[in-house]
Structure formats: C-alpha cells, structure tokens
Amino acid sequence: MRCRFCENLSISQLIELAEVEFKAHYFPQKAYHQHHASYNELLESANRGCDLCLLILEGFQETILDSLAMDWEGYTIAAALQDIESRGHATDLKLCINAGHLYDGQMLKDTKLLDTLMIQAGNILIPEDEDHDENWIPPLELMISAPRSSFQTSFPDLTSLTQRQQQQRSEITQSDDAKLILILAPIRTLTSHEPG
User: Fold this and answer.
1) Can you tell me the distance from the alpha carbon of 153 to that of 144, in angstroms, rounded to the nearest whole number?
2) Residues in contact with 111: Cβ distance below 8 Å, sequence separation at least 6, in sequence order
3) Which of 25, 109, 148, 160 falls between 20 and 30 A from 132, CA-CA?
4) Burial of 4 (0-12, 13-18, 19+ CB in 10 A)
5) Is the pTM value of this prediction over 0.90?
6) Does residue 81 fall inside a structural domain?
7) What pLDDT does 125 receive?
8) What range defines the domain where residue 119 resides?
9) How many domains does the structure of the chain reveal?
10) Which residues of 157-170 are buried (b: 16+ CB within 10 A; e: fewer)?
11) 97 assigned to some structural domain
C-alpha cells in the first residue's frame, strides 16, 4: 500500500526535477517532490501501511546525527524532528534524487549515475549561508540500487515479491521506461561525501 505522496512519486519525475536544479550532496531550494506536511504525518502514514513512508521513518529512527546538526549531535533524526515539531517549527518532507559518487557541489553534467534519494525534513540549507538555521537537520540519504536480476520483461507477482523483499527493506516501483525493483538502503555516514 502506498500513500498518495508515494503513489505519485516516480524516478522520471525526480530526474526531471534534477534537470531543473542539481548540486551534488545539496538539497535543491525549489526543484523537489513535496511529500508529507510534517514528521507526524509521515509517522501516521507509515503506521497505516505505506511501505516507502515506513522505509523513510526507519531511516530517520536509525540515523544518528553528527556535529552538522548542532543541537542534536548524537540524537537520531527522528528525535530531532520530534523536538523541532513540538516547538512549532516546520518538519515537512521533500524528496530529490542525487549522486553519491560526486564531490560536493558538482553539477548534473558531471554525474554518471543518480543513485541517492535525499529526504529533507523541515528547512533546507542554503549552501552559501555559513550560519544555517538552528532548526536545520541534514537530509536522510538512501542509496538506490537495481540488481541486474530485477529487470523484468513482464511485471512480477507483486504480492509474493513484496513479502520476500520486505525483509530486505525494499521498495517496488514502476518507472516510465522499465519495470524494476529499487532497493533502498540507508547511507550510514552523512558527513562523508567523498566519492566512492
């Protein structure tokens, strides 16, 4: 089951947005997919059974913030978002696609592969701003992969495939060009943006 925000999400749409605005390892200021209006809405959607929302929620719950997050160093993204939301600040979710093999700030023309789904909650960091907002949390980064064996000429039985893939924390989606299984896995180090 998918919520309406995840149902409307496609790799093709994310690529089109990247063609409008892209900087490696930076979340775009305007060209992104708007997702849930708050962290609490994401939590409710995950509890109702949206598999992609659940994957994002698990990423937030398992990712420990470093010194970039100032007041929340050592906390999970989820704990930081709960604190920000409890004080009345924005925790809306936005998604974009990016490239893990590029250095910070490289452009789309430099990419060989768009392999990272970035999820920004709340305020977006302005790259030129040395004093970023105290309520800014670094985006969660999920690596996108499509095993060679996942390319299908006909769409698989989604019921049995979903049950098998849930244990691997997978997401099933259909792109415009090909039907593939995208396996999303949390990237553990949010501070290291060395290609690699």
Assistant:
1) 21
2) 22, 24, 99, 101, 102
3) 109
4) exposed
5) no
6) yes
7) 81
8) 4-144
9) 1
10) eeeebbeebeeebb
11) yes
